[in-house]
């Protein structure tokens, strides 16, 4: 039962952060214009249809203190949280960052725009609200998502 409650809390915190980001984006840039129409679907048999690749979403997941200690045993400098009370989903320190994607811990290296490892990137953007920042996560050209939350540093 505790795992179910934790899953619900995670989902709610993530949705709050993502909705704050999307609402701010709409306010700043207006509503998105429709893209080009998708090609008409073809009739396929069930087996072939089930083989069709679907790009999965890659949302940052909560990090535990044990997760963080694996990469940053001496502690971290900064933490990004979806809400003030949620666990971190990105931590930074020692010229790098840690994020959990699809149940896996991924260490990111600092670069000029934020943090990266292969095609996975994470960057923190300041917003007009001094208490909220945006975490933008990309995975190649197929996936970009933003979350508005708190990026707090110990210094």
Fold and architecture overview:
- This protein is α+β, with helices and mostly antiparallel strands.
- The chain has one domain.
- Helices cover 26% and strands 34% of the residues.
- It has 3 helices and 8 strands.
- The chain has helices spanning 2-29, 46-50, 65-71, and strands at residues 78-81, 88-93, 96-101, 104-111, 114-117, 120-126, 133-139, 143-153.
- Strands 1-2-3-4-5-6-7-8 form an 8-stranded antiparallel beta barrel.
- The termini are far apart.
- The model has no long low-confidence stretch (mean pLDDT 83).
List the keywords.
155 residues, alpha+beta, eight-stranded antiparallel beta barrel, 3 helices, 8 strands, globular
Task: Give the arrangement of secondary structure elements.
Blueprint: H1 2-29, H2 46-50, H3 65-71, E1 78-81, E2 88-93, E3 96-101, E4 104-111, E5 114-117, E6 120-126, E7 133-139, E8 143-153
Antiparallel strand pairs: 1-2, 1-8, 2-3, 3-4, 4-5, 5-6, 6-7, 7-8
Largest sheet: 8 strands, antiparallel, barrel
**Overall average residue pLDDT:** 83
Percent strand equals 25-35%
The span between the termini is 38 Å
The number of domains = 1
Gyration radius, rounded:
18 Å
Return the structural class: alpha+beta
Q: Tell me, what's the shape? A: globular
How many helical elements? 3
Q: What is the number of beta strands? A: 8
Proportion of helical residues = 25-40%
Order of helix and strand elements from N to C terminus: HHHEEEEEEEE
Biggest sheet, spatial arrangement of strands: 1-2-3-4-5-6-7-8
Low-confidence stretches: none
